[in-house]
Amino acid sequence: MTDATKGPGFATLAVHAGAAPDPSTGARVTPIYQTTSFVFNDAEHAAALFGLQAFGNIYTRIMNPTQAVLEQRVAALEGGTAALAVASGHAAQFLVFHTLLEPGDEFVAGRQLYGGSINQFNHSFKKFNWNVIWADSTDPASFEKAITPKTKALFVESIANPGGIIIDLPAIGAIAKKHNIPLIVDNTLATPYLVKPKDHGADIIVHSATKFLGGHGNSIGGLIVDSGTYDWLKAGDRYPTLTAPNASYNGMVLAETFGNFAFAIAARVMGLRDLGPAISPFNAFLINTGIETLPLRMRQHNANTQAAAEYLAKHPKVAWVNYAGLPENKFHALQKKISPNGAGAVFTFGLKGGYEAGVKFVGALELFSHLANIGDVRSLVIHPASTTHSQLTPEQRAAAGAGDDVVRLSVGIEDEADIIADIEKALAAIG
Ligand SMILES: *Cc1c(COP(=O)(O)O)cnc(C)c1O
Questions:
Q1: Is pTM, for the whole model, over 0.85?
Q2: How many domains does the chain have?
Q3: Which end of the chain is more exposed for a tag (fewer CB within 10 A), N or C?
Q4: Which ligand 1 atom sits nearest the alpha carbon of residue 209?
């Protein structure tokens, strides 16, 4: 039961946080404010908005009422002070690092990541001279070893894509705290329904809202959440975007003016303003609607996935199943501690027939769609080696849990019996 002294519970926040009936029309659901720009009251009001002396809507690249509901809703679910909605999960990561790093800086990332993030860090970020140092997400000590005086952030996923790996966030959070380095956690696979990274030391949380937050496979979007926990001023001159007098805002020091939500402001008024990856009001509307059923969907995702993993683990054609919800899994104890409501909907398994069997299995499924996405109400399947992780070397693929024999499932919210029947039929088709 919800403890009323702590404020509304998770399901109530998922439906209501950030939203109120529209003040001008009475519309109960937050409308799609499909407008580029907003009229100023007068010249003084305009000057205050542009100078950050007043909060308000100017232009939809920077802020919009439909996006604002999404931001407040996800900030509430994550327990953060503020959030910023952007065009995609990758845009969220880009803006986070743009806010934290200067050319020549380093960050330490656990190598068990979404394949697209590995590419972004290894290649595109190098053009800005932002240098990733890889650590092993399953070995917190490897993060400490990788830290140098140039390290400006640590980055991990809470539940790692695609391997079904549960990360020891408290251990990595303690290392971040000890070295006074902000910890960034990609909470896409877990969602705040399963894991609250802030409780384990995350200073900044990022999401691909494209996945479980939106939940319906219909919109690309991303979120940045400011936990409000990192003291930027205490870090001296290490984060100049936050602590140096800002030339485009009359010498304002963002960390002084905005305190425990300065990071979210800086990512908006420097990163989003100048780099421009804004989310459309329509996508923000669809993701707002999706979040309303997040707890219901996650419960069904978890139950179906547990059943599918148990079925596969007993099947003679299956070599191994990597799902933290299985008692024999090496991450099971960590899952009970960090993600007690379930192990999520995404996991990998290997077929004894290797690459060939994987291709046949994927081709024989009917209910499961073969595509490059996760976190949809529909059940999805992919062979990472030939798709999402194909740009990586075989060594990088193996390290990321995406070797040649690996099949990844994102189990949907259909009937459990139909999901199992589809898997059973496709396994029979391997021959
Ligand atoms: C999909 C994904 C991303 C990238 O998000 P987009 O919305 O596709 O840009 C980042 N991290 C994880 C864990 C993801 O699954």
A1: yes
A2: 2
A3: N
A4: 7
